[in-house]
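Lecture 7 notes: from sequence to structure.
We start with the chain below.
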Amino acid sequence: MSLTVSYQQHFRAIMRLGLPLIGGHLAHFSIGMTDTVMMGWHSVAGLAALVLGSTMFFVLFILGAGFSAAIMPLVASAEAQGDQLRVRRVTRMGFWLSALYGLVVLPAFWWSSPLLQAFGQQLSLAEEVQRYLRIAGFAIVPALLMMVVKSYLAALEKTQVVLWITVGGVGLNAVLNYALIFGHWGAPAMGIQGAAVASLLVNLGLFFGVVFYASKTSAEHALFHRLWRLDWDVFGAVARMGVPVGLTSLAESGLFAASTIMMGWLGTVPLAAHGIAIQLTAATFMIHLGLSNAATIRAGNALGRRDEGHLRRGAWAVTAVAMAVVAVTIYAFLAHPHTLIGLFLDVNDGDRDLILQTGATLLAVAALFQLVDSVQAMALGLLRGVHDAGAPMVIAGVSYWMIGIPAAYYMGFVLQWQGVGVWMGLVVGLAVAAGLLMARFWIWSCKIEL
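Predicted structure tokens for the same chain:
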């Protein structure tokens, strides 16, 4: 028999769990944001290269992060059932899968210039991106392994210290960027390569920080004891969930990556404006991602307890919180676009006015997709919590690749709406995904068989 949890209790639990997760995502995102801001102060050409390089890194990272995302609901359900052995086995196989994936994709970073040229990018821009990724690309392995530890700790609702470790990483990244991009304090002025070195060092530091914390606070799971031993059954279980989760995330990130490629066809200034606007919308998405993670954990616990009423009430509660965040974000984007975009630009940059004008227009469109982006994020979090990964992968692929990307190209280049048209395509893809994913959860996936 289930214990009825009121909506007020759900709201409290979501905020208690969600706020540290949101803070952690925002802090980790701020590392990339710092790179963008400082490269914007350095040069518009460097900013454009960083935008493209970061996009390529993120696309490959988000695919591999599917394994760590799978850890969260699997550990949450095992913990609710009191199965400590499965908690350890699932997390260990998450390490294995993430490390193997990271090593496989490293060559794509090393030879990124030919890949980018094949997608229509200028030779000079592609070469600059490759200089960045030949250093920053090595961060993929520690970054993915760190995500496994963070997902494990989040599923156990141990998020506070991880938040502060990540905040420390933000400060370290800012200091290293200031020294290595501009050549301060006796360091060489390395430009975009300095940003790459800083990102690599910070990701290594964050990984060792969360590993140390996990080993001290969760010694009963002995995560790192005899880590080399493979558990093929659990390896397969994590892979079966992690691959579709990763492909789902890849479908969405691929939509935004395709928009970045298209904006690159329009020139350096539109690409720089797009990069800034994407950073701002991504910052707000970190809030929704934290809430989505909270939804995954709560739903995973409800599944482990076989409590459908608990699952449904929690789903309504987390969606209501997300809608409140959407309202605030839309106001900020529409009321203060120039202030927000100006944070990324040198006041003396000759292209500043053009970037401000273009970026403000893009933020007006971004306000339109805040609602649908939030809804699809909540739906995905809830679906992952009940271990539903296959159908969301198909929905995401159709919505983003078969509808969103063609719509972006058609509006941007056939209708010649340029950057605004490309971003309207994002709205279309996200809106279709939001509707279908929410329908999937409420019509089918929220029914728990007792």
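Points to note: The chain has one domain: 7-445. The longest helix spans residues 268-305.
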